[in-house]
Design a protein that fits this description.
single chain, 13 helices, 259 residues, mainly alpha, globular
C-alpha cells in the first residue's frame, strides 16, 4: 500500500508543482497568454511557489529579460555562459543583475498585485528566504497531518518539478539537441524528452518564435500537457482570452529561412 500511496502522491504533486511553473509563472504571469479568475491564478501559481521557484516578480522579470536578450549579452541564463550557469549557477552567481527600477519597468502588471509585491519583499534577497520559510511550513504540515510517506513523495516531486524548467534552460538552447521549426533569432530548440518532463515547455523553439501563444506544442507529435490542462479548465468556463498564433503568422514563419 505504501508504494502505491507514494507513487500516487508523487504524480499528483509533480503535476501540481509542474503546472504551477508552466501554466502559472510562465504562460500566465510572464506572457499573459490567457486569463483566469484571481483565486484560480493564485492557486495555480502556488504550485510553483511551493517548489521554491521564488518571488513571481523575480521569476517574471528574469524570464522577460531572457526573451529580450535570448542567447546574447544580457540573457540571465544562456548556456553560452556555461552549462552549469544555465542550469543553476545563474541563481546564486548571476551575470545579470536586475535593479529595483528595472524590475518595475519589466513587470508593472505584477507590481499592481499586493500579494506579488508582498512575496517580492521590496526587491530584496529576503524574498528567497520567505519562499523557503513558507515552503518549509507547508511541508511540515504535510508531515504532521499526512505522515512520512506523503511527505517524502511530495518532497521528491517538488525537487523534480523544480529541475524541469532548468533542463529547458540547459538543453533547449543547444544546437546539438532537438530541432528548430521556426526562425526565432536565437538557438532555441524543440526537445521531446524535455517537453514531456516539463509539461510542454520543451517545445522551446515554438515558444520563442511565438512567445504570446498559450499553446507550445504546435505541430503533429508535439504533446503539450499544459495546453490540454488549459482546455479542460476552459470546458468549465474558467479560462478566457486564450492567445494563439494566427494561421497567417504560422504560414509566414513556416516559409521563412531558419538560418
Amino acid at each position: 500500500m505504501s508504494i502505491w500511496l507514494f507513487l500516487g502522491v508523487f504524480l499528483l504533486a509533480y503535476i501540481y508543482h509542474g503546472v504551477g511553473i508552466t501554466m502559472g509563472y510562465h504562460r500566465l504571469l510572464s506572457h499573459r497568454s490567457y486569463k483566469v479568475p484571481k483565486w484560480l491564478e493564485y492557486l495555480i501559481v502556488s504550485g510553483g511557489y511551493l517548489c521554491l521557484e521564488g518571488s513571481p516578480i523575480f521569476w517574471v522579470t528574469t524570464h522577460r529579460l531572457h526573451h529580450r536578450y535570448s542567447d546574447k549579452v544580457g540573457d540571465p541564463h544562456s548556456p553560452l555562459d556555461g552549462q552549469w550557469h544555465a542550469f543553476l549557477g545563474w541563481m546564486y552567481k548571476p551575470k545579470v543583475i536586475i535593479s529595483a527600477e528595472e524590475s518595475r519597468i519589466l513587470a508593472p502588471d505584477l507590481y499592481r498585485d499586493a500579494l506579488y509585491r508582498f512575496l517580492h519583499v521590496n526587491h530584496s534577497h529576503k524574498d528567497g528566504l520567505l519562499c523557503l520559510f513558507i515552503s518549509l511550513v507547508y511541508r511540515a504540515a504535510i508531515f504532521y497531518w499526512l505522515g512520512p510517506v506523503v511527505f517524502w513523495a511530495e518532497l521528491l516531486a517538488s525537487v523534480c518539478a523544480f529541475c524541469a524548467p532548468l533542463l529547458v534552460n540547459l538543453y533547449c538552447h543547444k544546437p546539438e539537441w532537438g530541432y528548430q521549426t521556426y526562425p526565432s533569432g536565437d538557438q532555441s530548440r524543440n526537445v521531446l524528452w524535455v517537453a514531456l518532463l516539463s509539461f510542454g515547455e520543451g517545445w522551446h523553439n515554438n515558444h520563442h518564435a511565438l512567445p504570446q501563444s498559450a499553446r507550445f506544442g504546435l505541430n503533429k507529435g508535439e504533446f503539450d500537457f499544459t495546453w490540454q490542462a488549459l482546455n479542460c479548465l476552459k470546458m468549465f468556463g474558467l479560462v478566457s482570452d486564450i492567445r494563439l498564433p494566427k494561421q497567417n503568422k504560422l504560414a509566414e514563419l513556416e516559409t521563412a529561412d531558419i538560418s
